[in-house]
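Hey, resending since the last one bounced:
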Amino acid sequence: MAQLSAASTMRALAALCLVLFLSVLAGCSGLSRGSLDAARLAVFGAKLEITPEQVAANPYAQMLVQGDDFEALMVLGNDDAGRSAWYSPDRRIVFLRDGLLAGTVGLAQDASDIRLVGDNPFSRLAALQGTSPTLRRYDWMPGYRHGAMVEGELRRMGPEQVEILGTMHTLVRFDEALRGAGVDATNQYWVEPQTGFIRKSRQLVAPGLSVELVQLKPYRPGGTR
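The structure tokens again:
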């Protein structure tokens, strides 16, 4: 028990040092306020307060990621053949492929890889009506559960008003019921009606764990990065 307490204390001290270091660095290099807020959240658990001005001041694409026990402002790091990597100051990483969750690092449970198998109805969301089947392959950590197959049914639900950074957007909601490999969950997507771009979503990472993703400064390949 003493060893566990000592380990927890060391982690807390390390996280506090990260916040102090980023605060000093911000004074010297203009590090974004959003990055500092994300680091403080990792230590103190306070809710992030992000303004449109803060997002606009950062030249990089930005995404808000929320889980059951964390909230992080992530910045686009790189795009590797369509698999974009988003980083938070507290060393979490989220990978996306065309707006779909493709993997995570640093969560309570991680998916080292998530990929669609066969037909990809998400490539035609702007025109998709009714329902369409999906099939995904998940690799989960810890536990080395590789190749877990999860079936889904993607359904167009209709338009909804969604607020992002104080601005209302008319987006089309899609629900995707997921079953198999211990999964009983629903992914949700809010999509730009003309382009099919996923602006907001709630997606499964692993059984019992989902994250909400909101594109604050969207990354569109060939555009803003």
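Residues 1-16, 21-34, 41-45 have pLDDT under 50 and may be disordered.

Sorry for the duplicate.
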